[in-house]
Amino acid sequence: MATLTVTGVRPWGGELSDLVLDGDLISGIRPAGSAPVEGEAVDGGGHLALPGFVNAHAHVDKSWWGQPWVSYGGVASTEGRIAHERAERDKLGIPGLDGTEAVLREFLRHGTTATRTHIDVDLGLGLRGIEIAREAAARLDGAVAMEIVAFPQDGVLRRPGVLKLLDQAAAAGAGWIGGLDPAGIDRDPVGQLDGLFDIAERRGVGLDIHLHDGGELGAFQYELIADRTLRTGLRGKVTVSHGFALGELPAARQSALADQIAAAGISLATVAPVRTAPLPWGELAARGVPVGLGTDGIRDLWSPYGDGDVLRVAQGFARLHGLRTDTDLTAAVELATRRGGAFVGREKHDLVVGGRADLVLIDAENVPDALMRVPVRSLVVSGGRIVARGGEVLV
Question: Which pLDDT belongs to residue 154?
């Protein structure tokens, strides 16, 4: 791939610089105009430059984006939403290739260049949703890198045959398998975790477990997951998504559980939903626990909300956690960008030499200004290619 130089930008709001992209890596960062430009060049117009956004928790297979409005229905509980989705999804063609591609295009125009997405695997769908997601990503020629979690939305043990499907998904190349409320849904936390960790060990894949159960019930499951992670040698390969319980515990209990999470090398993914307890994100950061931000579902049978913009999710995270200082507001954007790289298998996802050539330009004074205003992304580059401009996808 030819060299592309993005001239006159301010990485993280710093000094005006030229970024030299060689293939899919950043090969040089230099003061603006300090050296002749070789190959293709694009004028950054003095805009703020950020790494590509990382959506650490998505469900790209579920959306009715691009279709006529679908009214919210069913019973507003985890079990109720599962049942409603199972009853209605076929009528909407979910999962569908066009709908999945439409969601990925929304990601891209908002500057998301990589995602970890949960794809439903159940007795009705088999592995069809994973095949559809891969084909949709291929339509965009890899502009959105995708890590797939084979996700048992309808439970694991209570639906005989689901563990076998998860094992088949892992054997067929899914990098992650999911779990769901081992206590609240399957009513057998030890049994569900036995099955999931067995697959993860045998297949060499990661685990990403939805944990909605709150309070001490949720804390108990955190402890079980941490114990299993250490005993199976899967440190660094286990994520708890949502994990509301951690924010609901008394401070001393919260701190002790954060120690266990850190010791086991577990990461957390949150979508920062309203009316939930703030996570002790500062304590987690101090312990080196990766925290990622994601959109969750977008206009699906669970919720009519969402537009695929991870920067807007970062703003919601900042609001939920009461962030106001420039340092803290910038940290929220870091969770959505450079700190999110771990969730998509990238050791270096930042505007640094050797980093992935994924970047987003925003007409903003600085990072906190971008977070508060959530402007249109003026330019999106993925893997050294210009893939969106002015909010319009070019691939």
Answer: 93
